[in-house]
Amino acid sequence: MARRSSSSSSGAWRYLNPAYYLKRPKRLALLFFVFVAATFAFWDRQSLVREYESEISRLEDDINRLHDQLRKAGVHVDENPSNARKDLVEIDPVNNERREKVKEAMLHAWNSYVKYAWGMDELQPQSKNGINSFGGLGATLVDSLDTLYIMGLKDEFQKARDWVAESLDFDKDYDASVFETTIRVVGGLLSAYDLSGDKVFLEKAKDITDRLLPAWETTSGIPYNRINLAHGRAHNPGWTNGDSILADSGTEQLEFIALSQRTGDPKYQQKAENVITQLQKIYPSDGLLPIYINPHSGTASYSTITFGAMGDSFYEYLLKVWIQGNKTEHVKHYRQMWETSMEGLISLTKKTTPSNYHYICEKNGGSLSDKMDELACFAPGMLALGASGYGPEKSEQIMNLAKELARTCYNFYQTTPTKLAGENYFFHAGQDMSVGTSWNILRPETVESLMYLWRLTGNKTYQDWGWDIFQAFEKNSRIESGYVGLRDVNTGEKDNMMQSFFLAETLKYLYLLFSPPSVISFDEWVFNTEAHPLRIVPIHDNKGIGTPARPFGPLGRKQGKPE
């Protein structure tokens, strides 16, 4: 055995003896070839590794330089590439297909507006003409800017941007609704600015807001609700008997605070926040204010309490200003007021028989009315958004109420022949719900709440419900020249108006319902009541003024009465 080992060893060693190869030139040549090939392969591999490492380093340097440039420009950059991979994982084929269908619907609505009503406030699709229902401010165009941007419709956005820069003029002898102009025009322009960084939008937002400011020149600081844009004369509509409307007076805070942050001028924020200061003085223990407020005395007038028309967005903004303000001590009173009001909301909540649908009553004096507007279907989303600010037990209670109210709102749609909701509903013992006012004007509130609930719970049922509603719009409201509302959800009779909020809100919320939650993340953006996302910015001082980071007569929007 030892010999075999010794023999084997000596046999191996001979290949290391140069004399072995000198006697065998062919083997020497082969060895040389193998040696040269191995050497080249080694150095070639090392070269490839160096080139790869050099390319990675170069790309990292480029990215770092780009990040530095973006930061200097005030642009927020997410430096964690895993977020991009997360977005890819979150996109599933069903949602992708649904989102593309919604995007196509937006293109159909937009192209119809461009063809038949370019530059006017709203399109009348059946007669194929435009109408200036807001004084000729290009309401549909301005309302659509951020939707076009979010959906990646770059050419359409650029065309709209050029119209804003060249043709949008606010010097009009027209008595505008302060509320509608703020949420649609100021909100739309600020959102377009936050998304694109194009200063033309900020300049226009400042121009129109400066024209609205005289409305706040009242004894109490509670604003008048209408103002002449050319002459600055402010007043209230005759049908309110001189009173200001709660929602109209308490739904400018998000936009005005945002404008002060972006311009560095505190006057807008001061005007809007003074309204809340005045309302705090008369705030009731249940947090429920009547819809009429006297602008001279600052006191509430005897009138309806509702989370529907003329009340709704006041409560919404209490929560959202707290979010916009980074939930700091400076805005703590907004949250406290909102929580008080949510206890009031709970006190207005009842259940139907036999299906146990939860609904929010209206209140007149000491009695409750078993009526709920579709407008109040924003409440499930608001409750879901605010639930996390409570402790665990209360948070669960609020979220459960949000879910129950969303089920009711979804069934506002499902219980009609067209599967589209009426304007309001009445509730009777043993009968669940029945349509009151039977028109549908393409409102967004239910799909808004479904979007919030899906993002905050992860339950895809809300996506399926939203898809059902979208399909009902496609079946009943889509025509060759745009989208129309229904005069009657029972018969399907069509009207002749494509509301601007259909493009601003309804289609945007549906698109986001089928998009990853990182698209307009709740951590970075807060939506105004017209679905215009405003970027949440840091607060640098106790007045909340900061510099924003930037990335990458008609039926009123919130009213059930003619303007």
TrEMBL record:
Tell me a Gene Ontology molecular-function term this record carries. Answer: mannosyl-oligosaccharide 1,2-alpha-mannosidase activity
The positions flagged as active site in the entry are 180, 312, 423, 445
Q: What stretch or stretches form a coiled coil here?
A: none
Where would you say this protein principally sits, based on its record? membrane
The protein's superkingdom reads Eukaryota
Q: Is Ribosomal protein included in the keywords of this UniProt record?
A: no
Give me the disulphide-bonded residues: 377-409
Subcellular location as annotated? Endomembrane system; Golgi apparatus membrane
Q: Give an example GO cellular component term for this record.
A: Golgi membrane
What does the similarity note say?
Belongs to the glycosyl hydrolase 47 family.
Reported function: Class I alpha-mannosidase essential for early N-glycan processing. Progressively trims alpha-1,2-linked mannose residues. Produces Man(5)GlcNAc(2) from Man(8)GlcNAc(2), but only Man(6)GlcNAc(2) from Man(9)GlcNAc(2). Has difficulty acting on the terminal mannose of the b-branch. Involved in root development and cell wall biosynthesis.
Protein's UniProt name = alpha-1,2-Mannosidase
Q: Origin organism of this chain? A: Panicum virgatum (Blackwell switchgrass)
